[in-house]
Amino acid sequence: MTTAALLLVLASAFCHSGWNFLLKRSDHKASFMASSAGIGAVIFLVPAVVVTAYEGIGWLGLAMCFVTAALHGVYGLSLSRGYNIGDLSLVYPISRGSALAFIPILAVILLGESISSLAWAGIAFVLAGVYCINLDPHALRDLLAPLRALGGPTGRAALLTGVLIATYSLWDKRALDEVSPITLNQFAMVGHVLVLSPVLLADRGRNVIGEWRWNWRLILLSGFLTPMAYLLVLAALTTSEVAYIAPTREIGIVFGTVLGAVILHEAYGAMRIAASALIVGGVFLLAIAP
């Protein structure tokens, strides 16, 4: 992985875990996320229009952007549901980690990417860290507990989110052949707003009004962090393989776990932070892999 790609992904992971933390702290997750995406779409509207007008966009690129919008919108809906019923330090690792299990293999099969032995070792470290982060420290003999946890409501919601992450990551890597990162990111933000809108209108907008009344500062902050996090990833994808970028991005799991354990006082903080060391080690191997 190139140094530029590594720096972009690390910055993205920081932004991503930040807006996930803010989303978890909100009262009505779907309303908060739709509002944040709307703010993000407004912030980057002019740059996206200028870049798209300058570079142009064909029918294929436009069609791929619409699919991107749909995928990101459904992802936002699934993530919001996960945070409604589960801890940040549990939902975040499962959703990001399950995506990691799919992306490298599919990238080799579908995109023809090649992965070095050192990179595979790094991916294995990250996967091990994601798995251990879900272990109950009081029942270490039950090593299959994280797998069974996937059968519960929180696990299923997080796993679905992970499948969507893997899907949009591979799709967007291909879409970058047709459109610029800032154009694709703009469609992703608009997709969040459009897909979540029916949920917001179900109560005549009362939850949206409540979120803006009590959390408007956090919405504005998240409105910057949300699009910036993915824009940085898209920029990194233009310089390196998605099979390297996606696992490295999981350093955000460490940030999210620390935020959930230290600030939100979620359970098993020590175990989850210790398991994060494996993820950091895996990211290091990916960073130096050819």
The main β sheet shows up as: none
User: What's the order of the H and E elements?
Assistant: HHHHHHHHHHHHH
Radius of gyration: 18 Å
| Total tally of structural domains | 1
DSSP summary, beta strand count:
0
How confident is the prediction overall: mean pLDDT?
A: 83
Low-confidence stretches: none
Find the structural class using helix and strand composition: mainly alpha
Annotation field: number of helices: 13
| Molecular shape | globular
Throw out a few tags for this protein:
290 residues, mainly alpha, 13 helices, 82% helix
Structure description:
The protein is mostly helical. It has one domain. It is built from 13 helices and no strands. The chain has helices spanning 3-25, 29-43, 45-55, 59-85, 88-111, 117-132, 145-149, 153-175, 181-201, 206-237, 242-249, 251-263, 269-288. The N and C termini lie close together (6 Å). The model has no long low-confidence stretch (mean pLDDT 83).
